[in-house]
Amino acid sequence: MEEVKEVTNNDIAIEVKDLYIGYKNIQAYSIKKSLLKLKKAHVEEFQAVKGVSFEVSQGEILGIIGKNGSGKSTMLKALAGIFCPDSGSIDLKGHTVSLLSIGVGFQKEVTGRENILLSGMLLGFTEEEIRAKMPDIIEFAELGKFIDMPVKTYSSGMHSKLAFSITAILETEIMLIDEVLSVGDAKFKKKSYAKMKELILNRNRTVVIVSHSESTLRDLCDRVMWMHDGEIKRIGDPTEVLEEYQEFMK
């Protein structure tokens, strides 16, 4: 593992400032009850991310860990532009970005092949660029005849294979990964892990990985950010942060 890099103001790829993201939870009322009782549905707000600020330098690999409900995936989806912050800012410095996450981004009614084209265009690639890379994506995904079947027929493992292959072969400048390396058969998991290490060693890509796997984060990341109840509890050297996290979770 390479020496941990210090983040400087030069070549910052991701800049997050004072970010707040909340969800509105509307308690269930039937329309009939609401009309009869003339009551408004009670709205509760859950603050998933609370005043978070951090930077990721270009080519850095940042891991995010934390218990379920800590705000990890919400943060990742905000970086991908899927969630809009209530306040604060996210600056990707003009870099192209892709999110690798199960259940995100595919049209289930169309085939895997068609989804490669759609996903690539959403990432900002031209049809010509995507078609040139398509044979490599299909070969890496190892889906066989399923590549020409609707994605709704795919298992979660097949979905992850296609998602990983698109993101790995169509090389965006920022890659966001949400637990996808833990899904799929053992053979593909090994191959995708090797591909991920290859992409990281290239150092042309900035990567943010959300994972519960401490070994993955320790092996791949330059720094680890520990989130707890929507806030950053600690960010720094992977070994130090993960040891403190382990003690906390006992």
Please bin the fraction of helical residues.
Answer: 25-40%
The global form is globular
The radius of gyration computed from the alpha-carbon positions, rounded to a whole number of angstroms, is: 20 Å
In round numbers, the mean pLDDT is 85
- What are the secondary-structure elements, in order, as H or E? EHEEHEEHHHEHEHEEH
Quaternary state reads: single chain
Span between termini: 27 Å
Structural class: alpha/beta
Low-confidence stretches: 1-9
Question: Helix count, per DSSP?
Answer: 8
Strand order of the largest sheet: 5-6-7-3-8-9
Percent of residues in β-strands: 25-35%
- Total strands: the figure is 9
The main sheet comes to: 6 strands, mixed
How would you characterize this protein structure?
- This protein has 250 residues and is an alpha/beta fold.
- 36% of the residues lie in helices and 27% in strands.
- The protein contains 8 helices and 9 strands.
- It has a 6-stranded mixed sheet, with helices on both faces.
- The chain is globular, with a radius of gyration of 20 Å.
- The chain starts with 11 loop residues before the first strand and ends with a helix.
